[in-house]
Amino acid sequence: MNFRHGQRDEPEINLIPFIDVLLVILIFLMLTTTFSQASALRVTLPQADAEAPPQRPAEIVVAVAADGRVAVGDQVLTQRGVEALAQALRAAAAQRREALLVIQADAAATHQSVIDVLAAARLAGLAQITFATQRGGGAP
Question: Where would one find the signal peptide in this protein (predicted)?
Fold first, then answer.
C-alpha cells in the first residue's frame, strides 16, 4: 500500500459566478418593483412659502367657498354650473386684456368645484391661471 502524506490541494471556491447571479437577481428585482405612495397621508392645503411676483397683471379673482358657492370678483353667482361661471368670466375678461385668473379656493372646498372653475376658464378662453395660497409657517 502506498500512502501519500504529501500536500493536500485546497478546494477552490470561485465566487465570480455567484456574484454574477446575485447581480442579475438584484437587477431583476429593481426593474420589477413598483413604488407606491401611501394613500393614507394627511394633506393640509393650501399653504405656500412663495414670494409674490414683482409686477402683477390684471387679475380676475374667483373665490370658491367650502359649500361650493362661487364669486367672481365681488359678485356672488346665484346660478350654479360651468356655463354660468364661464359667462361671468367672459364678462370679467372683456374689461381686462390678458387677464390672470386667480382661484381662491377654500381648503375645505370640493375638488369638483375647483375643476368646474378650471373648465369654465377654458370655456371663457382664459389661459393664465394660478391658485392663491396663504403663507405657511414654514416647511416641516
Answer: none
d(CA 47, CA 137): 8
Which phi and psi angles does 61 have, rounded to 5°?
Answer: -100, 125
Domain that holds residue 76: 47-133
CATH code where residue 114 lies: 3.30.420.270
> Strand, helix or coil at 60?
strand
pLDDT tens digits for 4-61? 666 677 778 888 999 999 999 999 988 887 665 443 434 444 556 666 656 666 788 8
Q: How far apart are CA 20 and CA 34, in angstroms?
A: 24
Name the pTM for this structure.
0.56
The alpha helices in the chain, defined as continuous H runs, are 16-32, 82-94, 111-124
Let me know if residue 17 belongs to a domain. Answer: no
Please measure the distance between the N-terminal and C-terminal CA atoms of the chain and give it in whole angstroms. 83
Separation CA 15–CA 110 (nearest Å): 60
